[in-house]
Amino acid sequence: MKKLLEHLKKDLKHYIDPSHTPPEEKARLKRIDRQLTTALENQRPIHLITDKGALTGTITRYDSAKAQLVLRDFTQGPTHLIALSDIQKISFLPDSVIDSQEEAKKD
After folding, report:
1. What is the pTM of this model?
2. What are phi and psi for residue 85, nearest 5 degrees?
3. What is the C-alpha to C-alpha distance for residues 36 and 31, in angstroms, rounded to an integer?
């Protein structure tokens, strides 16, 4: 019952002020922003889990003001425009995967 009331309170706050983002969401977006900035600076490939599925590739452009990034996918080749709010999890690729991707490109 208590969780139900907390959930209703959260929904009511969002209904009254839709621009209000909860502190947990702000912290999650800040962590994702920090990881994306690091990946872009070091040209490090990443693995993203989004609402629509999983993607692996390199960041070609990141716009923190619009909260969007452009990711060039390893497997499919095309680029994807992804909103930060769609990202559920982000992780850096291990060096072994990076090496195998580079070897596959040479062949």
Report:
1. 0.68
2. -70, -20
3. 9
Whether the CA torsion 19, 69, 50, 28 is positive or negative: it is: negative
Whole-number Å distance between alpha carbons of 8 and 102 = 50
Question: Residue 17: what residue type?
Answer: D
- Report phi then psi at 67, rounded to 5: 60, 50
Residue at token pair 């920090």: 34
Give the closest residue to 55 by CA, choosing from 39, 31, 38.
39
Give tens-digit pLDDT for 2-52: 888 888 887 787 778 767 667 888 888 889 889 989 988 988 889 999 888
Helix or strand holding residue 80 (H, E): strand 79-83
Backbone angles phi, psi at 76, to 5 degrees: -95, -20
DSSP 39: H
